[in-house]
Design a protein that fits this description.
With 126 residues, this protein is mainly alpha-helical. The protein has five helices and no strands. Helices cover 75% and strands 0% of the residues.
């Protein structure tokens, strides 16, 4: 569990999610008719992880509550995405999708597992 509680992993994971969500929703960002079409909640969770990870690397006790909140926020988003995409597995895939739905669900499941490990590790670490 101690592996997942490292602040540097929170920084890297948050930066990765911010980049991944930006790339995944790039067309929506460019053609957004309203700010509500942007993946703001994903960017907020990723930013909270990056900020809390850097704060925790300087002083663990000061940054730990924020790190736990960041991992909890990210875990909740990934659990929601996993369940939403799991439901889509029963629908036939569109031929123009570049990642098959089963692979996409597996990727989200791996990210979800990692985020839950980060949350559990941050809570357990003293």
């Amino acid at each position: 569990m101690r592996f997942f509680s490292r602040p540097a992993l929170a920084v890297v994971f948050g930066a990765f999610i911010a980049c991944a969500e930006t790339c995944l929703h790039f067309e929506d960002i460019i053609g957004a008719s309203s700010w509500a079409d942007l993946p703001i909640h994903d960017w907020l969770a990723a930013g909270l992880l990056v900020w809390s990870g850097s704060l925790s690397s300087r002083n663990w006790q000061d940054g730990r509550p924020y790190l736990i909140a960041g991992w909890a926020f990210m875990s909740s988003l990934l659990i929601g995405a996993f369940l939403a995409h799991w439901e889509e597995l029963s629908v036939p895939a569109a031929p123009d999708e570049w990642i098959p739905p089963g692979v996409f669900v597996a990727i989200i499941g791996g990210l979800m597992t990692f985020a839950i490990g980060g949350l559990a590790g941050s809570i357990a670490r003293r």
